[in-house]
Amino acid sequence: MSSNIVAIVGRPNVGKSTLYNRLIGERKAIIDDISGVTRDRLYGRCEWNGKGFTVVDTGGFVQNSDDVFEAAIREQVQIAIDEAEVILFLVDVTTGLTDLDEEVAKMLRRTQKPVFLVVNKVDNHQRMLDANEFWSLGFEQTYFVSSMTGSGTGDLLDAVTEQLGEEEPVETDLPKLAIVGRPNVGKSSFTNALLGVDRNIVTDIAGTTRDSIHSEYKKFGKHFMLIDTAGIRKKARVRENLEFYSVMRAVKAIEDADVCLLMIDARTGIEAQDLSILQVILRRHKGVVILVNKWDLVEKETLTARDYEREIREKIAPFTDVPIVFISVLEKQRIMQALDTALQVYENRSRRIKTSELNEFIQEAIKRVPPPSHRGLYIKIKYATQLAMHYPAFAFFCNHPKHVKESYRNYLENQLRKEYDFSGVPIDIFFRKK
């Protein structure tokens, strides 16, 4: 699926984060909420009227947000105009119309994208009257809401989802591999090395790739789709904006992919933003391979591959069953090994286990280590089955599903990983009432 993005923009303290929390936080249909890169909560997934989209709170990623410069706000609005399908322009009825609101409005009038003017904090009759002054900004789609109480947000969401296209999956039976990672780690060079053509502009400026590129690869007996994630044009003086939107773009590619090749720079190691991207991959239940690029530039006397790998696994714990391949795109070292590993992870993600075989194995594992009792209740797991999902998920039927401890869930997952190769693939385990 390609991801629809809805961005909330506006000057500081108009309630962007409150609206964001309202849109994604209190809806039962929320799929997940990912910790952002620079603040705690920046973008999350929301469903409304059967359509899914990603909500972005731009307020979270201005440096020194107590003292926001107009330039930083303008820059955010520009990024939102470039990246989002729909823009929510938030203003505050309690302060009335300000010069900065006028400035933002001027920029938004120039875009062809749908812009919704959202007047916030409208929670009584007097404020409803006061809110009418915002019609002077000239936006046809104007909504009066209270993010705090939620009034008016349903109508707003109805209108927003009308503007969003259906999320179409990329139609192909081929494995879909996405190359993701921070700006300037070598993603485009990797694509070019594989395809043997300069499909992408490669420069030393971080974030020169523009759009997500799907390329069919058919060489050396391998056949798959390669998705190269888009970066963003380098116009950000505020580096956080660039970093943040590179994650935004990664989200789109991850949703299109079956397996993600998470590329990191050997010289800097795995950083907070890499871990953010890894979390997105795992929550979307995609396969993952970690590629350590530029390994030829690391002093091997001071650090062996084994030590380096151990450090990575410590940082990505608890999910450590991930293949790690050390490569150099420039020297074309181990590029084919990286591909073979990714295609093996694709096989692992597609693995199906017969119910009879699964139960034989699981009953043995349960006999060896029975589930711990809960307040005198003995838990009996009767049988297990693999669910018909696009990633490995298992249902265990038992008498007290709510009382199975997390440690026992982990034990069962580890047993499955030992017996069957699920390397690089997140597994879901559900306990259900027999």
Describe the model.
The longest helix is centred in the middle third of the chain and has 18 residues, at 239-256. The two termini are 34 Å apart. With 434 residues, the chain is an alpha/beta fold. α9 links the parallel β12 (287-293) and β13 (324-326). Residues 26-41, 199-211 and 231-238 have low confidence and may be disordered. The protein is built from 12 helices and 16 strands. The protein has helices spanning 16-25, 70-83, 99-109, 125-130, 153-163, 187-195, 239-256, 272-283, 305-316, 335-350, 355-368, 406-419; strands spanning 5-9, 33-35, 41-48, 51-57, 86-92, 115-120, 142-144, 176-181, 213-219, 222-228, 259-265, 287-293, 324-326, 381-386, 393-398, 428-433. α7 (239-256) packs parallel to α8 (272-283).
Secondary-structure blueprint:
Blueprint: E1 5-9, H1 16-25, E2 33-35, E3 41-48, E4 51-57, H2 70-83, E5 86-92, H3 99-109, E6 115-120, H4 125-130, E7 142-144, H5 153-163, E8 176-181, H6 187-195, E9 213-219, E10 222-228, H7 239-256, E11 259-265, H8 272-283, E12 287-293, H9 305-316, E13 324-326, H10 335-350, H11 355-368, E14 381-386, E15 393-398, H12 406-419, E16 428-433
Parallel strand pairs: 1-4, 1-5, 5-6, 6-7, 8-10, 8-11, 11-12, 12-13, 15-16
Antiparallel strand pairs: 2-3, 3-4, 9-10, 14-15
